[in-house]
Amino acid sequence: MLERRGNSHCPESSADHVGTQQVAMTNKRPLGRPRVLTKALKEEICTRIMDGQTVRTICADGHMPAERTVYRALAAEGEDEFRQQYVRAREIQLMRWEDDLLEIADDGRNDWVEKRNAAGEVIGWTVNGEHIQRSRARLETRKWLMSKRAPKKYGDKIEQTVLEPNGSTIPHQRTYRFVVVRLGDCSNERDP
Fold first, then answer.
1. Separation CA 82–CA 164 (nearest Å)
2. Hey, what CATH topology would domain 34-113+128-154 get?
3. Distance of CA 120 to the CA centre of its chain
């Protein structure tokens, strides 16, 4: 049960009641989102990230802090343990996405839909282009994110080959010797 003291919106309220807010008469949890990340909340956030959820989705739950609170905690000094836990959770999320890529690519359940005539009778099958395009977008999004988050593991390998004028390849390591010739001093005097 809550009791309200004073009227902070009313300019005529007495000085002893100004700024007084709701006072809890029971031992219930305060209303609103938590502003401090407890160890349990940090662990739950990281566990849910490992399960494939985004920080935005996680923070949409009523018992979770706002996204801003999570990102501020990650940027704060003294949060090294949480930062390491978060980084590890993101690495595991990438491994999970590897499995997702295979499942999405192999799942052909909705690639074909029944084609019906005006009477509603099944007359054959047709390609479900919308589902195929959506699956492609899911694959490409995961692949792109993976290549940006872990480019050494998931990025495209770019190999360049340079050819000599005769068509042979130039070795990867080549030593060039430069000869520096000193033409003389920069002064205006002439040598005799």
1. 53
2. Arc Repressor Mutant, subunit A (1.10.10)
3. 45
